[in-house]
Structure formats: C-alpha cells, structure tokens
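Support case: user asked for a sample of complex input and structure output to validate their parser. Sending the pair below.
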Amino acid sequence: MAVHTVKQIMESLRRRESKPSEWAEASLARIRALDERIGAFLHVDEAGALEAARRLDGETPNHPLFGIPYALKDNLCTEGIPTTAASRILEGYVPPYSATVADKLRQAGGVLVGKTNLDEFAMGSSTENSAYKKTRNPYNPACVPGGSSGGSAAAVAAGMVPYALGSDTGGSIRQPASFCGVVGLKPTYGRVSRYGLIAFASSLDQIGPFTRTAEDAAYVLQAISGHDPLDSTSAPEPVDDFVSGLDRGVKGLRIGVVRDLSQEGLDPEVGRLVEAAIATLEGAGAEVVEVSLPHMHYAVATYYLIAPAEASSNLARYDGVRYGKRVSGDSLIDMYERTRSEGFGIEVKRRIMIGTYALSSGYYDAYYLRAQKMRTLIREDYQKAFETCDVIATPTAPTPAFRLGEKVDDPLQMYLNDIYTIPANLAGLPGISVPCGLTEAGLPVGLQLVGRAFDEKTLLAAAHAYEQLRGFEMPLPGVEQ
Amino acid sequence: MKISADTVRHVAKLARLAVSEEEAARLAPQLSDIIGYADELQAVDLADVPPTSHPFALVNVLREDEPRPSLPRERALANAPDTDGEQVRVPAVLEG
C-alpha cells in the first residue's frame, strides 16, 4: 500500500483521478492492517468516515483539504463521537459539541477517520499514561512514539492518515513528531482556537498538525488558524498565507544556535545529526549566529510548577456530577474523592498534587509566583535572541525514542526529556520539528526551529527548504513486515 | 523540600483525591524529587521581576449580555451520571 502526502491526494482529487471515498477506504484499510500492532487509535469511526466521504464523491473540491482523511487526538471534542482524553474518568463521554478545529476541518471537506491515543489528559512524554492502551513507535515497536500526542504521530508515520492534529503544552506535538520521523508544528499561542480542546494548562496549550512534509503542515495550519469568538485567548491577528511563501528559501535567514546544549543530557548522535542539518542550511545561504538563552536551564522547573498548577484547577471539573464517571459515596465529598481517585491515573494525580502544593497557602510565593517570574525572564531571553536571529535551531528532544517502560517509574527523568520544547510554550512562540535523519539504530531524529510570535511562515519556509536540501527522503518505517 | 506521606495526604485532601497508604508512600519520594528539582528556582534573584501569567498581553473585552441559543436541556443532561430528567442529581449536600 502506497503512502501519500496531503498535497498528492489534493492534486489527485482535483484532477478527478480519484474520489474521496477511495482515500477514506484506503486509510481505513491501512488502520485495519496495522493498528493492532501500532495502537495509534482509541476510536475508529469507519461508518461515519465512509458516509462523509461518499457524500463528497459527487462534489467539486473547493478546499485544499477537501476529501482528505485525517485523525484527531482524543482530547479534541467531536460531536456524537466518543472523546476520552485517554482517561477512565471520561469513559463513554460523547460530547454534545465539536472543537472549533474539528468544525473547521469538517467544513473544509475533511474526512475524520478516528481519534488517536495520548497520555491521559495529555500529561506525559511517551503515551504510556493512556488508561486504555500502549502505542508503539512504527520505527521500532519496542520503543515509545513519544507523547503526549503519540497516537497522532504514529498514525501519520505509519501512513494510516496523511495528517492528524495534536496538542502541545510542553512539546506534545514536536517531541512525538521527532520520535516518529514526521513533521510536527506547534503554532503560536492564540493562532488556533482551543475551543473544544480538553484543557490541561490553559496558558500553554496549543493545537497543531502532524504531517509528512512542511508543505502539508502549511495547508493544515491554514485551515485551522484564526480568531474564534468562542476562545477568548485566540488571537485577533491576521492569518498569513502560509503556503505561498514556502519557496522563498533560506538565503539570508539568520539561524540562532545555542551553545552548551550538551550539558542538558544531549545524546551525541542526536547532536551530530542536528549540527549537520544546521550546516546544510548554512550551505544554502543561511547565516548561523550564536545566541544565548541564559534561563533555558530553568525552563523545566518553571514548567513543572506552572503546568500542574493550571491542571489542578482545570481538572477540578471532573467531579462525577455533570458528565463522565461517577463512583457513589456516603456524601457529596466522599463521592468526589472516590470518583476522582478511581477515574484518574497515577500521573494525573501526581500533577494535580504538585499543582495543588505549588498553589497552596504558604507555598504560593515560593513556587507558583517564582515560576511565573522565571517565565518572564525566559520570554525576555527570546526577545533578546530574536534581535539578532530569525529562528532558533536546537534538537527537538535530547534523545531518540526510548524503550517502553524505561522511564515510567522515574517521572523526573521523563520530564527532563522536554528540555528543548518547553521554553517555546512558556514564551508562547511557534516551533516546528522536521526529521533530520536516523540514528545507527534506525530511530528518527528531529531538528526543532522556534520562531517569533505569529511568524509560522518563516518556520515553514525554512523547514520546507531543509526538506529539499537534506538529500534524502525519510524511509517509511518497517511496519508492514 | 522533603515531602512526607502526611503532606501527600494533606495535599490529596485539598485536591479531593483519596490516596491509599501505599500510594502516599510511593508518591512522597516522587513529589520530593520533583519539588526538589523545582527548588533550583529559589537560588535566582527574582525580586524585581514581574510575573507572567499569559504569553501575550490580552485585555478583557466585554460584550452585551444577550440571550442566545444554547444546548437543549436533554443534550446538556445526556452525559450526566444521574438526573431526574430535568436536573443533575447528587448526594445530599446539607444534613437533615
């Protein structure tokens, strides 16, 4: 079975060489053939996808994403289709409304084939915290796909869908994209409406695409961007034409590189591949400049106070009253406690407790307030760096995909895997991960580019240029053997 | 900062979580590790730095409070674990 990009399917449909229902059938067939081994999906809506696609068969393509199958991370609400955030507490929940991104893709003629696995409530870096199933890395089934959007990354990597959406709070799009050898884009905070995204940390969460190419990411970002009256934090910024600027190249682009990343636990093989990618861009006319992000070292500590604090507040709504699981108790409070204790997994409890602790009387100033102040310094570091460069290049993650089970008992080690991705969330900036090669062991490595606020255009053009220059196609994972 | 099993139980109570003895014993060293790691922020002078609660400076915008169509009752109640058909039902809040 051949694997196609969004662009290839779009062109085939426009030339009337194929029909939407054929692409939906191909996607569903590939899911049936592979997903028992990969575990990317929590719910496949076969009937709904075929019905939607057949309805489009008679219509004329009027949008780049018309007739193209896709998947959504299962923390994005879909009217009439189960949405669980991979938590027992939402088992059987069927939302009465759809997320704005799901509405936009439906209106564009997109065909939703299913909902993908994630770490429970998007809390994790390996998708192992899902209450329902493990997802395996298509490049090596003994390894994790990354997380928290591991299902979306694995589904695109294995060619089950040409694109999928995820959410990124501290790296949850970019890190699994890096681990699974696909492109992952976290847009600027506010670029994409969060309405209908099950909230984890509201000042950090942002929705974005997984695709096979930067060009495909531009098409998807175009379709999901824009101000939404239903999300008061969505930005009233004009939406650029992300596709038209893709070919502008990297001549004169100033790429900032941060010295001394090796102290942050960087795997030497990852470091070499990322340095080679930067050298490739330099060879094509980009200018490499050294920049300093002096407070980057504090980003993980800052994030693991702010994100759990926001989560402890956001997850207070799961009380067994209006929706989701309820476990009966002797009193209202007893019911709350039993419901939440049985409904949440251990990582979610851990984060709720860290957040509650950081916000509690006597500790607020020492932890939460200090973290918010450090967030200011991290933002200012970027502002200063972008005076002398246009994008900042780093590895997306310090290591390639690790093995299932390797870090589950050591939460702090798991958190430290987010060192390069977290700072962009704290500063609200856009970031993209683009594959830059395979390790000796055959695992993908991602180059991360972080840009100025609302300058996704520059990131996409640089990533697109790199894909043309890198001199290889990412090999498909060996999932069909 | 060392977090004891007692502190874990106290924080769990604040968060409306019931943790078993075994969970409290397992969580205490893990939370100590994580909070201990966060303690590196204590060494930085942040006295004159303003806090950031949101990446961009957005200001509240008010609109007229006008009635608009909303979810019909039966759909709003469809996911509730217990209802009387018109409202969600919970265990008694006030005694007697």
